[in-house]
Structure formats: C-alpha cells, structure tokens
C-alpha cells in the first residue's frame, strides 16, 4: 500500500480510511457483526422483525436477483469459479441469515452490464452502488452502508499536488459507468475523460503516463495496485467527493 503514498505533500491516511471501511461493517448498529470472512458461516444473528405486509412481500418474491459489480475488490467481486466475495458480500450474507432468505446471484461481465440489467429490470438488487443523478432514474437507494473517498492518482514521475481544478485540460482515466465518470462529467467538464473498462486498465495507463491521472476510490485503487505489483503510483490529491 505504501507505493500509493509516495508524495510527501499528501497526508497518507488512506490506510486508516481503509481500516475505517472495515470497522463500518464490523461495528454495525445493534451489536457485533462477525469478522470479515466469517459472515457466511455465522450469518444467523437476531431475526429482523417484519410486519405482515413485509413478510407477505417476501413470501410473494421468492427469487430476488442480485447483481454485484464483478470487479470491485475489496468491496465486492466474483472470482473465476463464480463465487461472490468482499465486504458487501459479507453484509449480504448477514442480511440473508437474519431474514431467512437467499438471493439469486447473477454474475455479469462488467459494471456497465450490471447497470444495463438494472435499468431493464432484469435484476432486482445491487448490493453496492453509489447514488447518482442518473441512477436515481431507475434505482431506489438505501442509506449508505459504506463510504469511499475519491483520490487523484498519478505516476511517481511527478511530485506536484493536484486538485480536480488542476486537472482541467488533462486526460484522466475513469472506469466506464463509474460514479467518478458522472461526477467529473457533470462538475468538471473541462477534464478530458479517458473511459476505461476496469480499474486495472486505468492504473496501467496512469502508471505508463498514457493519461495524466486516474480518479478512483482509495480502497479499490490500493487493492488492484498491490495485486498488479504496480509501484510507481502515488496519491497526488483528494477529490473532495466520496461515494
């Protein structure tokens, strides 16, 4: 993780932010939630009291189709065997156990397909989706169960601190369909967006200086940079936004 904290002018508290993300799920309201990785085995907490109407709805909807983001580690992802993992997956296991239900996992190709299936009503539930203006047209949202701050990533070839305003006129990588693509398009139209298919593609382009920067959330960027062994990236600034 330290490879993303190479700029001396940036306060490298991203590791603390990630630890906080974990605590959000571990220290849940109403009591202790099992540690990450144990939720699937220990998802039988106190049952949620349901009204007759709520119970009737569940009885009438035995199949609730759930489509996670397949490439959003460590929040959620689907492995090569079609298994669902991540912080959101543990939360889903707790919900299933306490409601006495089982969601139907729909494994899709990428986030663009997830959103398209949600818009066409081919899936019913997205376990971890940020609320945006465009998505409110076809999705209803719960209150947030996790908070992910956005950062500006650049290669270590530079040393300047960056803000979104500094990126005006520069090419910045964002994942297709991602929250950041909509935010930058709406709030910072002067930034030239390089739409990439995945976080790994964006990190590769940033590492090689094919783009000036990438905007992503801290946890996901750190996870994939470590997985890929990319060591020449740094957090050059904060976006001021979180999802």
Helix-strand layout with pairing:
Elements: H1 14-26, H2 52-60, E1 65-66, E2 71-72, E3 76-78, E4 84-85, H3 87-99, E5 104-105, H4 111-119, E6 149-155, E7 171-175, H5 179-187, E8 192-196, H6 199-207, E9 213-217, H7 218-228, E10 233-242
Parallel strand pairs: 1-5, 7-8, 7-9
Antiparallel strand pairs: 2-3, 3-4, 6-9, 6-10
Q: Could you tell me how far the N terminus lies from the C terminus, measured between alpha carbons in angstroms? A: 21 Å
Structural class: alpha/beta
Strand line-up across the major sheet: 8-7-9-6-10
Total strands: 10
Give an account of the 3D structure.
- The protein has 243 residues and is an alpha/beta fold.
- The protein contains 7 helices and 10 strands.
- The strands form 3 sheets. Strands 8-7-9-6-10 form a 5-stranded mixed beta sheet, sandwiched between helices. The protein has a 3-stranded antiparallel beta sheet with strand order 2-3-4.
- Strand 3 (76-78) and strand 4 form a beta hairpin.
- It is elongated.
- 33% of the residues are buried.
- Residues 1-43 have low confidence and may be disordered.
Structure at a glance:
The chain is of the alpha/beta class.
Descriptive key words:
three-stranded antiparallel sheet, alpha/beta, 7 helices, single chain, 243 residues, 10 strands, five-stranded mixed sheet
């Amino acid at each position: 993780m330290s490879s993303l904290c190479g700029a001396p002018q940036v306060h490298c508290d991203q590791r603390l932010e990630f630890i906080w993300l974990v605590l959000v799920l571990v220290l849940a309201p109403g009591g202790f939630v099992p540690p990450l990785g144990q939720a699937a085995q220990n998802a039988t907490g106190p049952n949620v009291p349901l009204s007759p109407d709520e119970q009737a709805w569940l009885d009438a909807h035995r199949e609730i189709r759930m489509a996670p983001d397949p490439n959003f580690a460590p929040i959620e992802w689907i492995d090569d065997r079609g298994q669902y993992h991540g912080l959101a997956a543990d939360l889903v296991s707790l919900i299933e156990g306490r409601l006495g239900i089982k969601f139907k996992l729909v494994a899709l190709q990428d986030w663009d397909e997830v959103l398209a299936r949600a818009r066409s009503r081919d899936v019913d539930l997205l376990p971890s989706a940020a609320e945006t203006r465009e998505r409110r047209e076809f999705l209803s949202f719960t209150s947030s169960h996790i908070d992910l701050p956005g950062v500006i990533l650049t290669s270590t070839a530079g040393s300047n601190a960056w803000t979104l305003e500094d990126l005006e006129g520069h090419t910045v990588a964002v994942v297709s369909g991602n929250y950041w693509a909509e935010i930058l398009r709406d709030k910072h139209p002067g930034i030239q967006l390089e739409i990439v298919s995945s976080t790994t593609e964006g990190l590769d382009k940033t590492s090689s200086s094919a783009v000036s920067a990438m905007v992503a959330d801290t946890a996901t960027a750190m996870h994939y940079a470590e997985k890929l062994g990319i060591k020449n990236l740094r957090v050059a600034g904060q976006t001021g936004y979180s999802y």
